[in-house]
């Protein structure tokens, strides 16, 4: 039986890349009975007749899965954040980072609209964002004058399945249009009354690029931690994970425990105060979550 990857899902149809062709398929009824939905990015076994549409028979085990956007087997998340229009929110940035860390997805942070900053603002944001570089995030700064997007981004996209994520209105679709001009994706201007962009992307699709695949995904302004357990949260902060080995108690949550290496690093100024405050907020958010049955 042939095997391929789902590169688009639309209106109950799944489009599978196979031998430089795209085969239109439906899912078998057995998936509905088992409450399994094929996702873009899934590696699948299928059957097809060249005269008719095919059928997906089986889905390989996923290495990861995102619900918003619905996609599987992602290698890296390119988190696009603007410093202005809309203003950069470290809280929202940390939410994205926690989500991708929990899924074992490598984050790359692209910061746009740097050209809109005053010199003082630029100094402030360089200091804040350099911290993310120091803890192991790849941070790239972009302005509207960075014309050759292909040359700039290609090294990060080759041979990988990449997903673009970030707040609406930060320039994800514009970035993709510069990267692959033939896409001509729809962009909407910022809704100034809301301070955020309108949703412009209607479905998830994997687009071939540089021997890799890029997903164009809906922008969203809020995410939740419904799939993250409380005890897993500290592991989603890179700098906490490294220091937790030196905490007195195994499974230290870095809040009230004595001889906590994370809190000591916070006191010494080695952990950014905003990151720790965001951690406390996320901790409370997960702790107060209603139990699932």
From TrEMBL:
<protein>
    <recommendedName>
        <fullName>Small ribosomal subunit biogenesis GTPase RsgA</fullName>
        <ecNumber>3.6.1.-</ecNumber>
    </recommendedName>
</protein>
<feature type="binding site">
    <location>
        <position position="252"/>
    </location>
    <ligand>
        <name>Zn(2+)</name>
    </ligand>
</feature>
<feature type="binding site">
    <location>
        <position position="247"/>
    </location>
    <ligand>
        <name>Zn(2+)</name>
    </ligand>
</feature>
<feature type="binding site">
    <location>
        <begin position="112"/>
        <end position="115"/>
    </location>
    <ligand>
        <name>GTP</name>
    </ligand>
</feature>
<dbReference type="InterPro" id="IPR012340">
    <property type="entry name" value="NA-bd_OB-fold"/>
</dbReference>
<comment type="function">
    <text>One of several proteins that assist in the late maturation steps of the functional core of the 30S ribosomal subunit. Helps release RbfA from mature subunits. May play a role in the assembly of ribosomal proteins into the subunit. Circularly permuted GTPase that catalyzes slow GTP hydrolysis, GTPase activity is stimulated by the 30S ribosomal subunit.</text>
</comment>
<keyword id="KW-0690">Ribosome biogenesis</keyword>
<dbReference type="InterPro" id="IPR027417">
    <property type="entry name" value="P-loop_NTPase"/>
</dbReference>
<comment type="subunit">
    <text>Monomer. Associates with 30S ribosomal subunit, binds 16S rRNA.</text>
</comment>
<keyword id="KW-0547">Nucleotide-binding</keyword>
<keyword id="KW-0862">Zinc</keyword>
<feature type="binding site">
    <location>
        <begin position="166"/>
        <end position="174"/>
    </location>
    <ligand>
        <name>GTP</name>
    </ligand>
</feature>
<comment type="similarity">
    <text>Belongs to the TRAFAC class YlqF/YawG GTPase family. RsgA subfamily.</text>
</comment>
<keyword id="KW-0479">Metal-binding</keyword>
<dbReference type="GO" id="GO:0019843">
    <property type="term" value="F:rRNA binding"/>
</dbReference>
<dbReference type="InterPro" id="IPR010914">
    <property type="entry name" value="RsgA_GTPase_dom"/>
</dbReference>
<dbReference type="InterPro" id="IPR030378">
    <property type="entry name" value="G_CP_dom"/>
</dbReference>
<keyword id="KW-0963">Cytoplasm</keyword>
<keyword id="KW-0694">RNA-binding</keyword>
<feature type="binding site">
    <location>
        <position position="254"/>
    </location>
    <ligand>
        <name>Zn(2+)</name>
    </ligand>
</feature>
<dbReference type="Pfam" id="PF16745">
    <property type="entry name" value="RsgA_N"/>
</dbReference>
<dbReference type="Pfam" id="PF03193">
    <property type="entry name" value="RsgA_GTPase"/>
</dbReference>
<dbReference type="GO" id="GO:0042274">
    <property type="term" value="P:ribosomal small subunit biogenesis"/>
</dbReference>
<dbReference type="GO" id="GO:0003924">
    <property type="term" value="F:GTPase activity"/>
</dbReference>
<dbReference type="GO" id="GO:0005525">
    <property type="term" value="F:GTP binding"/>
</dbReference>
<keyword id="KW-0378">Hydrolase</keyword>
<dbReference type="InterPro" id="IPR031944">
    <property type="entry name" value="RsgA_N"/>
</dbReference>
<feature type="domain" description="CP-type G">
    <location>
        <begin position="63"/>
        <end position="223"/>
    </location>
</feature>
<dbReference type="GO" id="GO:0046872">
    <property type="term" value="F:metal ion binding"/>
</dbReference>
<keyword id="KW-0699">rRNA-binding</keyword>
<feature type="domain" description="EngC GTPase">
    <location>
        <begin position="72"/>
        <end position="221"/>
    </location>
</feature>
<dbReference type="InterPro" id="IPR004881">
    <property type="entry name" value="Ribosome_biogen_GTPase_RsgA"/>
</dbReference>
<feature type="binding site">
    <location>
        <position position="260"/>
    </location>
    <ligand>
        <name>Zn(2+)</name>
    </ligand>
</feature>
<dbReference type="GO" id="GO:0005737">
    <property type="term" value="C:cytoplasm"/>
</dbReference>
<keyword id="KW-0342">GTP-binding</keyword>
């Amino acid at each position: 039986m042939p095997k391929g990857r789902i590169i688009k899902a639309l209106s109950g149809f799944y489009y599978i890349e196979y031998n430089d062709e795209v085969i239109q398929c439906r899912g078998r009824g057995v998936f509905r009975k088992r409450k399994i939905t094929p996702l873009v990015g899934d590696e699948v076994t299928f059957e097809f007749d060249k005269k008719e549409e095919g059928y997906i028979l089986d889905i390989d085990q996923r290495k990861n899965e995102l619900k918003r956007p619905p996609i599987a087997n992602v290698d890296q998340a390119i988190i696009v954040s603007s410093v202005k229009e809309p203003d950069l929110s470290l809280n929202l940035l940390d939410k994205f980072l926690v989500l991708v860390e929990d899924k074992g997805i490598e984050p790359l942070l692209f910061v746009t609209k740097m050209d809109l900053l005053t010199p003082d603002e630029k100094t402030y944001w360089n200091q804040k964002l350099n911290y993310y570089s120091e803890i192991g995030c790849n941070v790239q700064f972009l302005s509207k004058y960075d014309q050759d997007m292909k040359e700039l981004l290609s090294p990060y996209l080759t041979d990988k399945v990449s997903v673009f994520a970030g707040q609406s209105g930060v320039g994800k679709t514009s970035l993709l249009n510069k990267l692959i001009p033939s896409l001509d994706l729809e962009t909407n201007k910022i809704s100034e009354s809301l301070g955020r962009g309108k949703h412009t992307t209607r479905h998830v699709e994997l687009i071939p690029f540089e021997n890799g695949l890029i997903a164009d995904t809906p922008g969203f302004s809020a995410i939740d931690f419904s799939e993250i357990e409380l005890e897993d949260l500290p592991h989603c902060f890179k700098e906490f994970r490294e220091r937790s080995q030196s905490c007195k108690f195994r499974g230290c949550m870095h809040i009230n425990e004595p001889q906590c290496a994370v809190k000591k690093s916070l006191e010494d100024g080695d952990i950014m105060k905003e990151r720790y405050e965001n951690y406390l907020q996320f901790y409370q958010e997960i702790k107060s979550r209603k139990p699932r049955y």
